[in-house]
């Protein structure tokens, strides 16, 4: 049998096409499997919230721990993830952490930014449930901090997210989000309902877009979050953009409760840029959720449900002034940031949240 040159070309093209389709199918199947694992991780974290609430009659705070000097305490900045360790792993890790290593490392661990011989080696521990398999960042090297791809929801405010609540002081009230610094909220505080309120969302340590994993320094974002969006033109940062100079990217320390590392706000759309006003990883700002999943993120609600949220979810107006004043006065105010802002708050008046993918 003789083949003409044209027949060989057709056959070669058909084989190449079939190979490309097979590769695409396999890649899609692998990403689907990774997304399922990511969703399971979120479900484990929400289940840990419920188990914690059953035991202590409150949810953990996003940032807390022991107070004092960073060398003799964790300076009130330890992540709420630390409270989950005994609920996720049957290991001596948590008990060793709470015992400490006097006098080198205090009980509960040193501050999560401490380096050198006084750094708690427990902070190096990689917790599988804190890592999304789709994330493109390499595994931490020996001596580096353990990372996380999941973050606590701090609500739809900006300048007030780090306010410390004191129920005995009228102007120091709980923030609009379900989690905050050094304040333990209860399920009964979630006025919008557990099924309408976020608990966790994703943060990408490294993703195809250069805006993920970094935090830009931008003034005026507490009056117009759109100023943060303006620093990125869709493909590149505008000339002159500066960034917080932390040695770790977003999600680089699961042990660190500061929102730069383990928190997110529902102000700008998923996979938007994050911004703060100073070159400091411990200040308030806009901390956007992000992921390595194309065009979407995954989130966990307080009732245990996990959903895929599109970048195009209703986010209201990015030029709207953040509701910081309402937070400080305890006013129940509809979020100016649409459905996304509403599901990040505990009392924005939304009785039933609807999504674009629902009938």
Task: Give a structural overview.
With about 350 residues, the chain is an alpha+beta fold. It has helices at about 5-55, 85-90, 95-100, 225-230, 260, 325-330, 340-345; strands at about 65, 80, 150-155, 200, 215, 265, 275, 285, 295-300, 305-310. It has a five-stranded mixed beta sheet. Strand 9 and strand 10 form a beta hairpin. The longest helix has about 50 residues, at about 5-55. The termini are far apart.
Write the layout of secondary structure elements.
Elements lengths: L4 H52 L6 E2 L13 E2 L5 H4 L4 H7 L50 E4 L44 E5 L12 E3 L8 H4 L29 H4 E2 L9 E3 L8 E2 L9 E6 L4 E5 L13 H6 L8 H6 L16
Parallel strand pairs: 3-6, 5-7
Antiparallel strand pairs: 1-2, 3-4, 4-9, 7-8, 9-10
In short:
The chain has 359 residues and is α+β, with helices and mostly antiparallel strands. The chain contains 7 helices and 10 strands. The N and C termini lie far apart (59 Å).
Quick one: overall form?
Answer: globular
Which secondary-structure class do the elements indicate?
A: alpha+beta
End-to-end separation in angstroms reads 59 Å
Mean of residue pLDDT values: 88
As laid out across the biggest beta sheet, the strand order is 6-3-4-9-10
Low-confidence stretches: none
What percent strand?
Answer: 5-15%
Secondary-structure element series: HEEHHEEEHHEEEEEHH
Number of strands: 10
Could you estimate the helical fraction of the residues in percent? 10-25%
């Amino acid at each position: 049998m003789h083949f003409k040159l044209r027949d060989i070309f057709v056959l070669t093209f058909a084989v190449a096409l079939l190979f490309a389709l097979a590769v695409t199918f396999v890649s899609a199947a692998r990403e689907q499997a990774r997304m399922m694992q990511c969703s399971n991780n979120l479900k484990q974290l929400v289940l840990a919230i419920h188990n914690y609430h059953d035991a202590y009659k409150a949810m953990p705070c996003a940032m807390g721990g022991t107070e004092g000097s960073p060398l003799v305490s964790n300076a009130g900045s330890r992540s709420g993830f630390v409270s989950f360790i005994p609920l996720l792993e049957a290991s001596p890790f948590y008990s060793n952490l709470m015992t400490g290593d006097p006098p080198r490392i205090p009980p509960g661990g040193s501050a999560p930014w401490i380096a050198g011989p006084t750094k708690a080696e427990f902070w190096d521990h990689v917790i599988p449930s804190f890592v999304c398999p789709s994330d493109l960042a390499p595994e931490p090297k020996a001596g580096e901090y353990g990372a996380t791809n999941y973050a606590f929801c701090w609500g739809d405010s900006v300048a007030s997210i780090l306010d410390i609540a004191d129920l005995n002081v009228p102007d120091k009230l709980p923030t609009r989000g379900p989690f905050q610094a050094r304040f333990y909220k209860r399920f009964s505080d979630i006025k919008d309902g557990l099924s309408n309120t976020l608990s966790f969302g994703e943060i990408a340590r490294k993703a195809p877009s250069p805006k993920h994993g970094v935090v830009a320094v931008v003034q005026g974002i507490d009056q117009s979050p759109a100023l943060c969006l303006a620093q990125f033109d869709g493909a590149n940062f505008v000339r002159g953009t500066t960034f917080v100079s932390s040695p770790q990217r977003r999600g680089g320390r699961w042990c660190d409760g500061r929102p730069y590392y383990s928190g997110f706000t529902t102000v700008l759309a998923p996979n938007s840029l994050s911004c703060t006003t100073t070159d400091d990883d411990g200040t308030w700002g806009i901390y956007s959720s992000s992921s390595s999943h194309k065009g979407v993120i995954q989130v966990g609600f307080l009732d245990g449900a996990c959903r895929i949220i599109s970048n195009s979810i209703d986010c209201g107006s990015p030029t709207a002034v953040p509701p910081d004043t309402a937070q400080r006065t305890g006013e129940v105010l509809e979020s100016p940031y649409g459905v996304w802002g509403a599901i990040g708050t505990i009392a924005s008046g939304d009785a039933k949240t609807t999504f674009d993918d629902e009938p």
